[in-house]
Write a structure and sequence with these properties.
CATH superfamily of the largest domain: DD-peptidase/beta-lactamase superfamily
Strand order of the largest sheet: 2-1-10-9-8
CATH architecture of the largest domain: 3-Layer(aba) Sandwich
Order of helices and strands: HHHHEEEHHHHEEEEHHHEEEH
Shape: globular
Largest sheet: 5 strands, antiparallel
Distance between the termini: 73 Å
CATH topology of the largest domain: Beta-lactamase
Number of domains: 2
Number of helices: 12
Radius of gyration: 27 Å
Helix content: 40-55%
Length: 330
């Protein structure tokens, strides 16, 4: 009987000790959690890094043109000038480059060379058709049929000319011009040398609506293309939901040349949203790179008039990443 009594006393003591330890640990844990959770003021003042698209920028009212970063600009010019051929092309207005650093949403940085110089851009301005068609769908001016969705996808992913021509015929040149020149977007602005323009179907023959400054049929400037991607990344083209759908259309390009050729090698896991173009000596590419590492998140745009333009665009990626990076490695 004494043994049982002793056993009960020991068991009771163990229970009381365990309970007191658990309560103490719980109190310590609550104190730790309370200490680690910032106050409302601290939360409000702590910068939040967005990990997905669309971007949430601290002050999204500042236009991209106002975000020119002098350090980034200097580095870009120095990198371009290392190559005599590139330097000469830039001097002759036959090469234009734009870069936007998205690695820190609280410090967006922009730099460019020949930023407002509008050039023939072949298929790159198909992004303007995508925007105008998306706007027309949102406003009920175009029915989003399976055929329309299929054409919009291959127009971008495969740069299919027949699909693009069908989309242009569905919405018309006036619609495309109205969207590009609207006060909301100003993606073609005569005060800044023009910009994005589509005034001809992608094929022989047919009516045209060439741009008023240079009489170009398919045109772009790197600043305006950077603006397009910057607005798209923020969900500001048409609506946020429509911007997401446009991003879906532009992701995973089927053509693996130019920027994409190099990016597939050096950043195989990065998400790529892209549109390029080539015709004769005119070569262009544009891409929104969204890497797993936040330091590899940026926009690149290149317009080149040179018979070796495709290879030059491939060779641009790594030098431009050196310009953009803030750390030793990506």
């Amino acid at each position: 009987m004494k043994k049982n009594h002793c056993f009960y006393l020991i068991a009771l003591g163990v229970f009381i000790f365990a309970h007191s330890c658990t309560a103490q640990e719980s109190g310590n844990l609550n104190n730790t959690l309370s200490a680690s959770v910032p106050s409302e003021v601290e939360l409000a003042e702590t910068p939040v890094q967005n990990l997905d698209l669309p971007l949430r920028i601290k002050d999204d009212t500042i236009p991209l043109r106002k975000l020119i970063d002098s350090t980034l600009q200097k580095k870009l010019e120095q990198e371009i000038n290392k190559k005599p051929r590139w330097k000469k092309l830039v001097a002759n207005k036959r090469m234009a480059i734009g870069v936007v650093d998205l690695s820190d949403v609280n410090n967006i940085r922009f730099a460019c060379v020949n930023g407002n110089h509008m050039m023939y851009a072949a298929s790159l301005p198909k992004i303007a058709v995508l925007l105008a068609a998306t706007d027309a769908i949102e406003k009920g001016e175009l029915i989003e049929t399976k055929a329309v969705k299929a054409d919009m996808k291959i127009m971008i992913s495969k740069s299919n000319n027949a699909a693009t021509t069908r989309m242009i015929n569905r919405i018309g040149y006036e619609k495309i011009e109205a969207v590009l020149t609207s006060d909301r977007y100003n993606l073609y602005d005569e005060e800044y040398g023009g910009g994005l323009w589509v005034g001809k179907c992608y094929g022989s023959g047919g009516d045209t609506n060439r741009d008023p400054l240079k009489n170009l049929s398919h045109a772009a400037s790197v600043t305006q293309v950077c603006r397009f991607y910057y607005l798209l990344a923020q969900g500001k083209l048409v609506t946020e939901q429509r911007s997401k759908l446009m991003l879906d259309i532009m992701e995973d390009p089927a053509l693996h040349h130019k920027f994409v050729n190099t990016l597939n090698r050096i950043a195989p896991n990065a998400r790529l949203f892209r549109k390029s173009g080539s015709w004769k000596n005119w070569h262009s590419d544009s891409v929104l790179v969204w890497g797993q590492d936040p330091n590899r998140r940026y926009i690149l745009v290149a317009l080149i008039e040179d018979n070796n333009g495709e290879q030059i665009i491939r060779n641009l990626v790594e030098p431009l990443e050196r310009v953009l990076k803030n750390k030793e490695t990506f």
